[in-house]
Every structure is written in structure tokens, then in C-alpha cells.
Write a structure and sequence with these properties.
Blueprint (H helix, E strand, L loop, with lengths): L1 H22 L7 H16 L6 H29 L1 H15 L2 H16 L3 H9 L11 H48 L11 H25 L2 H11 L8 H12 L2 E8 L2 E9 L6 H41 L1
Antiparallel strand pairs: 1-2
Length: 324
């Protein structure tokens, strides 16, 4: 029976990704938007100065655990009522958690604006997806920012979600996505969030550790393997994030681009560690980075389907031999 459950999970994963690709991000009333507003209120109420690790841990638990527990309870309830309702629930959870189509929808207009020479539009569009100041950025800066965002969010918005869906179905994908969202909102090393957001950052690091390295391996496999592996080995340790470092250095090396370096945050120039090696990024490299992310998604789906098929066949033959 386990082999068939594994095949079912793989098919549900394909269905969730296909639904995301067909429909894209919900334009109104997206659950993650509502979650973001809720945790903003929670943070304002609990994050009183001086910051506290304990209050941060309580806030994380109040934000994530009830929703994950509710999703698991609904999963069990639906499974008792109808196989198809339970399957649809898993697919719906994955659809709302994954962001493959939205990555394309956010970055491709940047490439188009740069190709047409509309720097003002490119700056505005890039400023929507990154936290750095893009008001004075030139083409190379904007292309670099878009590629870096694609590589990192390929892991955060896509591959980490797929990994945890494979582990625990829809509730697993929800757990990862909510934890990752909290890290994005609270995981800053600023006076306001240094203590309060520490728990959110560490939990996200733990949940993301395996997916990030699988993502880095995948980028390397589908790009310049030797260069990606070298950049991962030599550059990732310089990044403060234990997961963004491997993902972005491997992706930059796979694409043969020189990323990282200077960027403006809150009016100050920050010298970030080097990522990758090669030439500076241009508009067409945004498209190349998107193709790397999308091919990686197809690779993951192909691998999980192949493993499921072989395992299902093995279990079927084993059970058949036992009954004989």
C-alpha cells in the first residue's frame, strides 16, 4: 500500500504545480496575504522593547501551529469522507503555497522593460521584489537583482515547498511556507528584530537546510557543473545565511554570472560577498535564470514520479510474490 501512497503523493504534487502554472497567483484574497496581516498585528502586540526570544517564539507558535494543525485536521477529516476531497485539499494547499508561476510573472516584465530601454519601469518593477534601493540602479544592477531574487526564491517559494509536500503532503507544504514567510518578515538583524525574530530565522534555517542543498545541486546539474560546485564551496561560507549562500552561489556559478557585490539598503551601500564568476548580468540573463528555475522544477517532478513508479512496481511485485 505504501508504494501506491507514494505514487499518489507524486501525482498530487504534479497536479498542484500544474494548477499553479495554469492559474498563477490569486489576485485577491490570497491566504498568505491575510496571514501576513495577521502576523504584522501579532508582532506589534508582542514585540515590545526590549526584544525577547521568548516572545518571538510565542509569536511564531501562535502564527504557525494553529493553522498547520487545522490543515492536518481537515486532511484527516476529508480522508474519512472522500478520497477525492482529500486529494483536492492536498492539491489546493500546494497551489496556495507554491510560487513558480508568480516568480515568472514578477521577473519577466523586468527583462522586457530592460530590453525596451525603459529604465524607470525596470527600476519600479525590481523594487517590488527586492528590499534594496533601485531608484538609481542601472541595467546591470537591475538584472543582477532580478537574477539573485529568482535563484533564492526558486528555493524559498518553490523547491522548499515541494520538498515538504513530499514529506508531509499539504500540511507539510503549509508549515514550510508559513515559516519561510515569517523569516522574511521577522528574520532581520536589526534592533527591532534581532531577538524577536531569532526563533523564526532559526526554524526557517532548519526547515530549509536540506531543500536548499538539493536546490544547489540541481542548479549545478542543469548548468555549469564544475563552476557551480566551485562557487558553492568557496563562496557560500561568506554569506550569513546558511541556505541562501549555497543556493545563490551555485546558481550564479551555473549561469556563469558575477553576482553579489555592492547594493544600497536603507540609504547605505552594503558590500556583499561575491557570488558566481564571469560577466555582469544583463536583461537576457533574467530569462536564463528563469529557465534554470523552471527546468529545476521539471527535474524535481520527473525524479519524484520516476522514484514513485519504480517503488510502486517493486512493492506490487513483492506483494504478488508473497501471496503466491
Amino acid at each position: 500500500m505504501m508504494g501506491f501512497d507514494m505514487m499518489l503523493l507524486a501525482l498530487l504534487m504534479v497536479a498542484g504545480v500544474a494548477l499553479d502554472w495554469l492559474l498563477g497567483e490569486v489576485s485577491r484574497w490570497h491566504p498568505l496575504v491575510g496571514f501576513g496581516r495577521y502576523v504584522q498585528w501579532l508582532e506589534r502586540y508582542l514585540n515590545r522593547r526590549p526584544g525577547s526570544h521568548a516572545r518571538g517564539a510565542l509569536a511564531w507558535a501562535l502564527a504557525v501551529l494553529p493553522l498547520v494543525a487545522l490543515s492536518a485536521w481537515i486532511t484527516i477529516l476529508l480522508a474519512r469522507q472522500s478520497f477525492w476531497l482529500a486529494a483536492a485539499w492536498h492539491v489546493a494547499l500546494l497551489y496556495f503555497c507554491i510560487g513558480l508561476r508568480s516568480l515568472r510573472d514578477h521577473v519577466m516584465p523586468i527583462a522586457q522593460a530592460l530590453r525596451s530601454g525603459d529604465l524607470a519601469a525596470a527600476r519600479n518593477l525590481t523594487g517590488r521584489i527586492v528590499s534594496r534601493d533601485t531608484s538609481q540602479s542601472q541595467e546591470t544592477d537591475l538584472a543582477k537583482a532580478a537574477v539573485e531574487s529568482l535563484l533564492e526564491n526558486g528555493n524559498d517559494a518553490v523547491f522548499g515547498t515541494l520538498f515538504w509536500f513530499a514529506v508531509a503532503g499539504g500540511p507539510g507544504a503549509l508549515l514550510f511556507r508559513l515559516a519561510n514567510t515569517l523569516d522574511a518578515m521577522w528574520g532581520y538583524r536589526t534592533p527591532r528584530f534581532l531577538a524577536f525574530g531569532c526563533v523564526a530565522a532559526r526554524i526557517d534555517d532548519g526547515l530549509n537546510w536540506i531543500p536548499a542543498r538539493l536546490t544547489a545541486w540541481s542548479y549545478a546539474l542543469l548548468g555549469n557543473w564544475r563552476q557551480a560546485r566551485m562557487c558553492w564551496r568557496t563562496q557560500a561560507p561568506a554569506w550569513s545565511s546558511p541556505n541562501a549562500g549555497p543556493v545563490m552561489s551555485s546558481g550564479a556559478g551555473a549561469l556563469g554570472l558575477a553576482l553579489g557585490g555592492a547594493a544600497i539598503y536603507d540609504g547605505e551601500v552594503e558590500q556583499r560577498p561575491q557570488l558566481g564568476m564571469g560577466r555582469d548580468a544583463v536583461a537576457d540573463d533574467i530569462v536564463r535564470a528563469w529557465k534554470l528555475v523552471s527546468r529545476t522544477a521539471m527535474l524535481w517532478l520527473t525524479v519524484i514520479l520516476t522514484i514513485s513508479m519504480f517503488y510502486t512496481t517493486y512493492v506490487s511485485l513483492t506483494m504478488g510474490g508473497t501471496h503466491a
